[in-house]
Amino acid sequence: MKFLLFTLLSTLVVVFLNSVAPYWVVMIAVTVLAALIRPSNWGGFLGGGLGMGVAWLGQTLYISAITSSTLPDKMGTIMGLGSGLSLMVLTAVLGFILGGCSGLLGVLFRNLVQKKPTDVYLG
Question: Is the dihedral of CA 6, 89, 71, 62 positive or negative?
Fold first, then answer.
C-alpha cells in the first residue's frame, strides 16, 4: 500500500513541480516524500523511479503531441539514436534512474536518523 501511495504521490509531485522548478529540486522533493512515507528500500527505489520515469515519459509524449514538432526526431538523429521515440524512451529511463536514486536516498536517510529502541526486553 505504501508503494502505490508513494508512486502516485511522486508522479504528481514530478508533474506539478517540473513546470516551475529544475530537476534537482524535484529530486529533493521525491527524497523528502520517501522519507515521510517510509516505503521499503525496493519500494522507495521502484516507486520513485516509476513515478519520475512515467511522469517524464508522459510529459514528453504530451508536449510532442500538442506541438506536432519535428524537433524530437531531429534531436534523435543528431544524437545518433535514430528517431524521436528512442529519445523519449531515453528520457524516461533517465527519469527512472534519477527518481529511483532519490526515493532510495529518502528511505535510507530516514533509516539513518530514526531512533532505534534501546533497553527493551527482547527475550
Answer: negative
